[in-house]
Amino acid sequence: MTISHSIWKQILALKRNQFADKGEVDILEVAQDHESISVIVQLKPNNGPYFGGTFNVLIKSYFNRTNPPKVVFLTEIYHPNVAYFGWGEDMDVCLSLLDDWNPCVELDVIVHSVLYLIKNPNLEESYTPVIQPDMDPVDFQTNVQLSLQGVTIDGLRFPFNYVM
User: Fold this and answer.
1) Interaxial angle between packed helices 5-16 and 107-119, expressed in degrees from 0 to 180 and rounded to the nearest 10
2) CA-atom Rg of the chain in angstroms
3) Which is catalytic among the residues 7, 11, 94, 111?
4) How many of the other CB atoms lie within 10 Å of CB of 39?
5) What is the tens place of the pLDDT at every residue in 6-30?
6) Which of 9, 49, 99, 150 is most buried, with most CB under 10 Å away?
């Protein structure tokens, strides 16, 4: 089965996207099966609390576009809007774009939204039990930096993830 023309257009649009030009987005892998297309992107935010980190994200889009794609972090991340209950589990993204899904939304919009969420975490709507909504923003920022350095936080060991 070959990858459809529509999907290739979306991948090329993502490559031309302004974020790809700034080195924030790389497409690592594209695969297709009988019901979906999977794209793994690498996100390297150039500012914000996760600056210096590198995060791989799987976006699995179904050919039946009435359902939203599955967006999962493959790289462990200390983030209030990424659910994790222990490593080895899916680290789903809490993204309003997926909750209010519109089948016309294309790959570059999804990637841009995830990159925006990395740069602008929403502490007030924490999706994970590890980060409380009333957490002090300074403590949160400290924990983010420690997580990128590979430190254990609240019993979760994070791999070193800091590249400059």
Assistant:
1) 40
2) 16
3) 94
4) 23
5) 777 888 888 777 666 688 999 999 8
6) 49
DSSP H or E run through 156: strand 156-157
Can you tell me which residue has the tokens 């924030």? 24
How far is it, in rounded angstroms, from Cα 119 to Cα 19?
13
Q: Is 94 a catalytic residue?
A: yes
Q: What is the pTM of this model?
A: 0.89
Task: Tell me how many helices (H) and strands (E) the chain has.
Answer: 5, 7
In 14-94 the beta strands, taken as DSSP E runs, fall at: 25-32, 36-43, 55-62, 70-73, 91-92
Within 8 A by CB and 6+ apart from 72, the residues are 57, 58, 60, 90, 91, 92, 93
For the chain, which ranges sit under pLDDT 70? 1-4, 18-21, 85-89, 164
